[in-house]
Specification:
The complex is a heterodimer. By secondary structure, chain A is an all-beta fold. Chain A contains no helices and eleven strands. In chain A, strands 2, 4, 5, 6, 9, 10 and 11 form a seven-stranded mixed beta sheet that branches. Chain A has a four-stranded antiparallel beta sheet with strand order 1-3-8-7, with no helix packed on it. By secondary structure, chain B is mainly beta. Chain B has one domain: Immunoglobulins (Immunoglobulin-like), CATH 2.60.40.10. In chain B, strands 2, 5, 6, 10, 13 and 14 form a six-stranded mixed beta sheet that branches. In chain B, a hairpin with a 2-residue loop joins β11 and β12. Chain B is globular and about 45 Å long. Classes of the chains: A mainly beta, B mainly beta.
């Protein structure tokens, strides 16, 4: 299994508070992604990174920001959490070789009350 | 924009039987990749099988195989000799790969129950 960890694994927070989720990889992979999973929608891409300090928006990026200051860490920040951001968040990685396979972390369940 | 559709929200199959999960997609791209991911109750996303659009031969991984029909934009997953451990949500996904990596576009998922 790819070495991907996410922290925290579970979090409950109040509306309006900032939240940062961390994705850490030990595979030295170039590409990292953040997805959210909601019932009826499958997984949807929030933001992705194609190198240190290189990031771009995905399908559902409003209300989220990301940073990648080193290869192994990709942070997702909710500047002011809203109830619509209650979801399960997955980080994924993929390498330079292969055919784009992405390997996923264990997920973070975030509840915004 | 690319879309992926899984028209079967739920399916069930008896242990040791064969089941086929359907997936269709829409794209104007010619070179792309298709995937099936499995998500058991543990919530972990597990890659099951991958298909390159430029390959005519259908991919196979042990008990899992696909029927890739490029002209029809169809990508079904066949699970042979179903096992209790195959019980999971299955997601079909589409990707175009470029220098910035590949953004997966997922279907809504099919919940498969394998019954003893």
């Amino acid at each position: 299994d790819a070495g991907i960890t996410q922290s925290p694994r579970h979090k409950v927070t109040e509306t309006g508070t900032p939240v940062t989720l961390r994705c850490h990889q030990t595979e030295n992979h170039r590409y990292m992604y953040w997805y959210r999973q909601d019932p009826g929608h499958g997984l949807r891409l929030i933001h992705y990174s194609y190198g240190v300090k290189d990031t771009d928006k995905g399908e559902v990026s409003d209300g989220y920001s990301v940073s990648r200051s080193k290869t192994e860490d990709f942070l997702l920040t909710l500047e002011s959490a809203t109830s619509s951001q209650t979801s399960v968040y997955f980080c994924a990685i993929s390498g330079n070789r292969g055919h784009g396979e992405q390997y996923f972390g264990p997920g973070t369940r975030l509840t915004v009350t | 924009a690319q879309t992926v559709t899984q028209s079967q929200p739920e399916m069930s199959v008896q242990e040791a039987e064969t089941v086929t999960l359907s997936c269709t997609y829409d794209t104007s791209e010619n070179n792309y990749y298709l995937f099936w991911y499995k998500q058991p109750p543990s919530r972990q996303m597990i890659l099951v099988i991958r298909q390159e659009a430029y390959k005519q031969q259908n991919a196979t991984e042990n008990r899992f195989s696909v029927n890739f029909q490029k002209a029809a934009k169809s990508f079904s997953l066949k699970i042979s000799d179903s096992q209790l451990g195959d019980t999971a949500m299955y997601f079909c996904a589409f990707m175009v790969l470029n220098r910035q990596g590949g953004k997966l576009i997922f279907g809504q998922g099919t919940e498969l129950s394998v019954k003893p």
